[in-house]
Each structure stands twice: as C-alpha cells, then as structure tokens.
Amino acid sequence: MFLLIYSTLFALTVVFALGVLVFRNTVKSAISLVFTMLCIAANYLLMRQEFVAFIQVIVYAGAIMVVFLFVIMLLNLREPESPAWYLRGMRYWGGALAFLFFFVLAWGIQVFSVADLTPGAAALEELRRESGQAEVTQLATLMVTRYIVPFLLTSVLLLVAVIGAIVMARRKDEDGRDITFDEDEEGA
Amino acid sequence: MDSSLPVQAYVPEIHPTGLIPFLLLLLGGIACLVVDAATGKEGSRRYLPWIAGGTLLASITCFFLRLVPGEVFLEDTFRADAFGQLASIIILASTFVMTTMGPSLVRRRNLPSGEFYTLILFASLGMTLLAISNELLTAFISLEVFALSLYVLVGIDRRSRKAAEACFKYFVLGAFASAFLVFGIAFLYGAAHTTFLTEMAEVFRQGYVESVGPEGAVTEIPVNTMYVFVGFAFMFVGICFKLSLAPFHMWAPDVYQGGNMPAVMVVATASKVAAFAFLVHLVEALSYWQGFASGAVYIVTAVAVVSMLWGNLAALVQTNFRRMMAFSSVAHSGYMTVGILVLVALPGLMSGAELEAGQLLIRQAVILYMAGYTVMNILAFGVAYYIGGGGHMAAYRGLVYRRPLPAAGMAIAMFSLVGIGFTPPTIGFMGKFYIFKEAVQVGFVGIAVIALLASVISAFYYLNLVVTMFMRAETKPAEAPLAGTPEAPVQVGGELLARVVLVTACVLIFVFGIFPQLFIGLGETLVNGAVR
Fold first, then answer.
1. What is the mean pLDDT of residues B104-109?
2. How many CB atoms lie within 10 A of CB B264?
C-alpha cells in the first residue's frame, strides 16, 4: 500500500515536471510547476519531514509561484519568437546537460552514502523519540533558544531588503521629480 | 503551559555589555529612518550625518571601553578575540569615513539621505557581526545583511547609468556566490554535526562525532573527509567573491568604476575586512582536521597566486583610476590570502602551545595588513573623491601644481600600496613584511617569491600615477572639463572633517608603519582587560 502511494507520487512528480517543459503556454507551464512543488511536498511528508513539507508549500508553491505568475502576466508573453541562430542548438545542449546533471546527482548519492549525511534528520528523530514532540516544535524551540541570534538578525535582513527594494524601485525622487538617467560617464 | 517545553528552563548565558556596540548600530539605523520620516528632506540632510557618525563613533568607543568580552559570548554565537575586535574597529572606522563623505554626495547627486545613512549603519552592523561570528548561520545572515545594504548603496545614485549597471552586476553575482556559501555550510554541518566553529574545531581535533543513540548508547561517527573538503571549497568560493579574489573578481572593476566613490571605498575596505576576519576564524577551525592541509593548501595557493599575478598584471594596462584600484585590491586580497595559506598549513607542522603562538602571530600579521590596506585605500579613494577626480587619469595630470596637499596624500597612499623595497616606514611595507616572513618560516618560499615579484610589478602602475600627478597639464584644467569629473573640488559641507580624516589616515600610515607593535598591542589590551 505504502509502496503504491510512493510510486504514484513519484510518477506524478515526474509527469508534472515534464509538463513544465512540454507546455508551450507559459501559464500552463507555471501551473504545472505548482503541482510539481506540491508533489514534492507530499514526498517530504511521506519521509516524515513535516516542517520541510509545509515550508515547501508555503514558500515555493505559495510565494515563489505567485511571483512567477505575476511576472508572466506582467510581461504578457505570447508564443516564443524564433531564437537567434546561436541559440538554436541550446535545447539539445540543455538536454545533454540535464542528463549529465542527473548522472552527477546519482553518483553523488552513491558516494555520499546518505545514511550519515543527515545528522539533522537523525538528531530530530532522536529528539522526537525522547520527547514525543513533533519536529516543528523541536525546530521552533531551537530557533528561540540557541539560534536566537540568526533568528533575530533575519528581521534586520528583511528590513534592509525592504528599504533596498524601495530605493531601487521608486520612480520619483524626494522632490517629486521623475528619476531619469544623466548622461554621465561614471558614478559620483 | 506544558512544563515539558525546554523553553522555560532556558537561561541564556549572555554578556549584556558585549552586545552594546551592535545594538547601538541597530538602534542608530532605526533612528535614522524615524528622524528622516519626521523631519523631511532638508532636516534629515542636516541631522542624519551627525546621528550616523555619532553612532559609529559611540560604537567604536564601546570597544575601547572594553565592553565586549574577549572570547566567546552569547551562547558561543560570537567570538570577539583581539583579531575580531580590531577587525570590527577597522570596519567601523571605514564606514565612519563614508558618513563624512555622505553630506556632499547626497547633496550633489540628490540622494535619499534617510535610506543612505540607515543602510550605512545596517551594513556596519552586518560586517562587524560577521567579523566576530562563531556560528555559521549567524555568519551567513550577517553577510547577507551587509551585502544587501552594499548592493543598494552602490546603486543608490539612480540617475547614473553606470551605477545601475554596477549595482545589478554586484547583486546578481553576489546572490550567486551566496548560494555557494550556504551549500558549503550544509556540508560542514554534515561533517561536524554542529554549526558552531569552536565546537567544530573540537570535533575535528578528536576526529569523530559523538552521537547518543536510543537507550543512551554513545556511538562515534567518524568525520567524513569528503564533506570537510567539499564544504570548505564551496564556502571558500563564496567568500572569495566577497574578497574579489581571482578568478571570482569579475564584478570588481565594473562596480568600482560605476558605484559612487564612498560606497566603493567601503566595498573595497570594510566588506573585505569582515569577510577576511570570518575566513580566518573558519580556516582556523577547519585546520584541526588532520589531512585538511593536504587538500586545502592547493586550493588556497592557486587562488592566492592567480590573484596576485592577475590582479597586478591587469592593473598595469588600466587607463582608469577606479579600475586600476579594483585590480590592485584583487592583488592585495591575494597577498592577504598568503596569510590564510600559512594558517591552513600550521597544524600540520606544530601542535600545542607552539601552534597557538604561531596562529596568534599570523592573525596579528593579517590584521596589521588589513588595517594598512584599509587606511591606504581610504586615503586614495578619499583624495580622489574630494578633488572630484573620479576615474579619469587626465584629472590627476599636474595635480601637484594645482592642489599640492591632496596630491601629497595620494602619493603617500601609492607609495604605501607598493609596500616593498623602497617604502619601509609605511604600514603597507610592514603588513607585507610580516605576512611574507610567516610564509617563509612555514616553508612557502616559492609563494613568498611570487608575492615579492607581484609587488615589484605593482610599483609600475602605482608610481605611474605619482608621475602623472607631476606632469604639467597639457591644457588648462578649465578648458578640459570631463563629463562626470568636475574639476572644481567638492565644497559642499564636511570639508574640514574630510581634511581631518585624510590627514589622520596619512599619519596612521607612518605611525603604524614605524611602530606596528602599537596596533597589535592595542588588540591585546582590548581583550585582556575585557569586562567579563
């Protein structure tokens, strides 16, 4: 039964991933990507990594895909134009590279025997066994105890990102004039 | 509440005073935002330089008041040894110089002053935290805090095409490098089962990780050499980008040329000091893994040699002052990496108290070099900024006759940057002397020779600038105005402060050049008398 669920999920993941490549309509591709992300999240759940699964849904299927769709809608993409001559062979090079990457990954998993690669997973499993608490609780506890500094620093990082985005994206300066390029040769 | 939650039993071990300089920077940044919102354009232009500069000076003062404990604090998250504290002071001094340049830049290019000063303070916060961080996640997030601030500061002049290009290149390549850094961190965590550098050093020293299995059975998991190497290699690539070490320096010339001069100065000095301080702490922890040196020596040597040679040779053919300084900074990072090389090899050669003494010596050599590099670059970029010289070499032609004092400052900076052979009493010479001496003592004679040769090459282009300053201008300066390089000096605000800062830099080059022990002793004094 378990094996059946597993294999169905894997098959679905691959099918949706292929869908991203095969659809010529970018919106369909993007929706296909959403389903790929969701399938991967389900895979994480089956591996008992609840936290990663939820993050996968919230961040990838949620936030990142919204940005993807936003860009697609904004740019109003249509049928792709025929590419420049030096880009025509790209799809075959890309395919070859993808295959190469697949073998590198397979080799990597072989070499780096997975059993001892996952200290985090082992530690979490251990904590779960001892305390009977879910993984998320354990992570949250660590986050507000030993890892409080990076957790708090993240807020500064987000503040900087917001300020930076405002500076770089605004259209008018403080006097309300449009910002246009000067004809200078270099920065001040 | 559920009493089984460990949160309630958790009493963090904090040295509250140690956080004061960093909290000051954070609060100062937020104060800048609030004051900017409250006072409007003219008000914020008037008050913010004082707030930002005052915050930075207060933060430096905290280090001198010995508020920061001299070793690990806040649950081992930070490790403010003499090296880290001196690095923090250098960083804060560099950003302070940027705030003194701020008023004239903001007025001339009509920049948003609130964001400008806020980002300077947040960048200082990120850089100082990176310099003293003892934990990989903290290090990564601090690095991102200052990197994001600097991307924006480089491109804050939205009216400049070149600045937009520089900002975009810096951002895209920087994000790419960050991915390498995180990947490396994951591997090191896989190898040592901890993200804390001091614990990591302990794990590598004993060679295995103790894992408590079910029913309290302790198993010893041996450290996987492959993970250590892959982790180090990826982290090194990520840090090499920040240090603009060849072959990861491609962004540097464009950023140095396009960004505004004050921001470029900080990118060239403070951000490199921060990344280098972190690299030293990282390599120190990793070098305890037996067999680490056998692989890492090749990676570090390759990067150091390529940076020294490529940086200097490429600088020879530059016709733009800013691009020349970019390649010169690539070469200087290469010299400093020779120090890292010694640090990598040291545990294979000695152990115990001897090893600690050796590591202390090389840390002192590196910090002295970083201090010298920072002072020289502040002087060079500062003079270039205040005479409005920009990047065009033509603007420096005949500078001696027009403005003798700035020209003298620039000449001192150039002589000190050459730093070998005929410039003994400068800090540039002392820094190189100590690092090359350590390299020779450990047995890297070949590397030291290459470094010396590279320094000789560098004399050509540094002294070429000095010669250019002595040439009579072919046409009167007024008749040859260059776009973007107004011949008129920047007169708006901060002129007196600028002179004080630049004269101080000149004095420091000689003081620390003649008495390098003063600077090194300062670090020891800061740490040994620290309030615990």
1. 87
2. 29
Q: Which domain holds residue B334?
A: 16-479+486-528
Q: Which of B44, B120, B149 to mutate to test the interface with A (most CBs of A within 10 A)?
A: B149
Q: Which of A116, A122, A170 is opposite residue B224, by nearest beta carbon?
A: A116
Q: With a cut of 60, say whether residue B481 has pLDDT above it.
A: no
DSSP H or E run through B73: strand B72-73
Amino acid B395: pLDDT: 81
Asked whether the beta carbons of residue B148 and residue A160 sit closer than 8 angstroms, the reply is yes
B247 upstream amide cis, omega within 30 of 0: yes
Q: Give the model confidence (pLDDT) of B65-78 as tens digits.
A: 888 887 888 888 89
Cα separations in angstroms, B444 against A91, B347, B452: 48, 15, 12
Q: What is the nearest CA distance from B231 to chain A, expressed in angstroms?
A: 13
Strands of B114-207 (E only): list them.
none
- Residue B365 pairs in a beta bridge with none
pLDDT of residue B489: 45
Q: Taking 90 as the threshold, does the pLDDT of residue A152 lie above it? A: yes
Q: At what angle do helices B161-192 and A119-131 cross, to 10 degrees?
A: 60
* Cα angle B58, B59, B60; round to 5: 90
pLDDT average, residue stretch B406-432? 85
Q: Which of the residue ranges A102-111, A115-124, B316-325 would you say has the lowest mean pLDDT? A: A115-124
Residue B403 Rama label (left phi>0; alpha psi -120 to 50; beta): beta
The single-letter DSSP state of residue A64 is: I
Per-residue pLDDT of B369-395, as tens digits, reads 999 999 999 999 999 988 876 778 888
Q: Mean pLDDT in chain A? A: 81
Chain A residues closer than 8 Å to B229 by CB: none
Nearest by CB to A187, from B12, B75, B259: name it: B259
Tokens of B249: 């320096």
Query: A110 contacts in B (CB within 8 Å)?
Result: none
Task: Flag whether B291 is in a domain.
Answer: yes
CATH tag for A1-77 (out of 1.20.120.1200, 1.20.1530.20, 3.30.2350.10, 3.40.50.1100):
1.20.120.1200
Q: How many domains does chain B have?
A: 1
Q: Is A4 on the interface with B (CB under 8 A)?
A: no
For residue B9, is it within any domain? no
Q: How far is A151 from chain B (nearest CA, A)?
A: 8
Long-range contacts (CB closer than 8 Å, 24 or more residues apart) made by B208-217: B209/A119, B211/A119, B211/A122, B212/A126, B213/A126, B214/A126, B214/A129
Asked whether the predicted pLDDT for residue A133 surpasses 80, the reply is no
B363: in domain: yes
Closest chain A CA to residue B140 = A150
Residue-level pLDDT at B164:
92
For A186, the closest of B112, B140, B484 (CB atoms) is B484
**How are beta strands B208-212 and B218-222 bridged, if at all?**
antiparallel
Give how far B204 is from chain A: nearest CA, Å.
16
Shortest distance, CA A4 to any CA of chain B (angstroms): 31
Asked whether residue B280 is assigned to any structural domain, the reply reads yes
Q: How many CB pairs under 8 A join A and B?
A: 151
